[in-house]
Amino acid sequence: MAEIVLGIGTSHGPMLVTETEIWGARVPNDKVSVHAWRNGDWTYDQLVEARAGEGLAAQITREVWDERQARCQANIEQLADIFADARVDIAVIVGNDQNEIYRNSLNPAFAVHYGDTITNYEFTPERMKEVPPGVEKSLPGYIPAGGAEYPGCPELALRIIGQAIADEFDVAAMNAMPRPETPHAWGFVYRRIMRDNPCPSVMVTVNTFFPPNQPTVRRCYKFGQSILQAIREWDSDKRVALIASGGLTHFVIDEAVDRTFLDGLANKQFEPVFALGEDIFRDGTSEMKNWVPVAGAMAQLGLEPHVMDYIPCYRSEAGTGNAMGFVYWR
Hints:
single chain, alpha/beta, 34% helix, globular
């Protein structure tokens, strides 16, 4: 039986892979976008007015940004050290796609990659035209110069698919990448947590972002338990890590939601998270659903969570930005 030796939850947003001097580059886009916050849709100006009493202007100085970036980077390096120390043979990485390899023409709720190779090639000029404003400078944080190919783990991936079907999850199966880039949720893990020296891995994708087929938080929790069962029944002596990539609340930060989520994770009691309601988990905040399968697996396994840090990185007085979280289970 394979042994699960490590769980990791990490944020992966562009603010983590860019200098603080360009953290404000997406604010012009924030100002013209409609944002999901507190079960509603808000313009930038409405958010500024609604959050006027929170003192967010003091959160968006260069001094604060530099301090919070330093904390984030220290946590990422610590997670990378923990990963290296665990001597992991295989990693199962749960993340979401943001129209990087899928399109609206075909976007599965859950999918598992069972191919031999995971490709992470640099963007073509045509592909660069699709990149949202302010994101292009972050791409080297997810794709190494010259691109890369990473080893998959078909044997474990096929077991995960088979167990999911047995547990009545209708997962999509892919033996090659639909597009040649690795989504940034995985690129961040390969580059930063695995330090560009990745072990074989299984890509598990969750459609957190795009209607109409996002799985619910409760469904994601149960899916994690199915993944756990597949790993535990795999006739192998491999040491396995489960890694969640994404979150926490963004593109509008909501510290109350983050605290509820992290408390549920720490207490291994997710009913308060389920009670938040599906409408909370929209836009970037939906990436918390990447953490939920790992949390569900770890709770059933009995491994204790270690919440290393929670760092809300605001970029505007509207509360836009990305709340960063870093957790591990040993």
